[in-house]
Amino acid sequence: MLSEHGIKIAPSTYYDNLNREPSKRVLRDAEITELIATTREQRFIARFGARKMWLHLRRQGHDVARCTIERLMTRNGWQGAVRGKRVRTTIGDAKAERPLDLVDRDFTATCPNQLWVADFTYVATWSGTVYVAFIFDVFSRMIVGWRAATRMSTQLVLDTLEHAIWARHQAGAGDLSGLVHHTDAGSQYTSFAFTSRLLQAGVDASVGSVGDAYDNALAESQIGIYKTELIRPEGPWRDVEHVEHETLNWVHWFNHERTHESVDDLTPAEVETAHYAARNRLVPTE
Predict the structure, then answer these.
(1) Taking burial as the number of CB atoms within 10 A of a residue's CB, which of 117, 143, 155, 196 is the most buried?
(2) How does DSSP classify residue 285?
């Protein structure tokens, strides 16, 4: 009995509490906890932190407070992925002539195909190192081109550029004149073949200063997402084909389903769709 331990409580109070139904908050917490647990079983979303999880659930029609998501994820020991340290892959050629830095760390754009940033990273596989290159549109954060290869060569970045040009042409952007393509000072990006292809496409080359990560910070940040959300948690990787297949899936998700805080918590596809819809409304009809 509680009274034997010096706790004075009426028996009726004790039994009332014992038989009391769970409160609305307890029931709601259990419902949301189950919702989060189920959502975390989806690929890529398992790496979401509280804010990303809150946004995702709201986009799915679940009206839940951000503080509730934070509280329940903390209670269950769920946390978002933590980015690892950036490893330098591109190595500059001190003898090569480099284009000017046309960006000067101002990673802003007012429309698609105004500024692209590019970089590449490496993936360790059972069969050796695989290099994956990306080109991002700064306005929408969309991945407009990517390629994987077993060699860190000019051909890798050339193939990525060709992919981006082709993809934009397919989307109706036939004229890329005025576009700025910005990279770090890696020898692959300052090669004659690469700069010649940019010139042929009417694209202005821009290269940051040697060894300064801030001059290509946006591309490095986006690649950090790739390493954090796909490469590190889903290894080990077998070979280049394995990396290519899963990167293809991740890129589609990144462009069409993953929201980005830097673009008002929209997906890259939503940003570009909204831009062109607004532009078309401004075009006068005859």
Answers:
(1) 117
(2) P
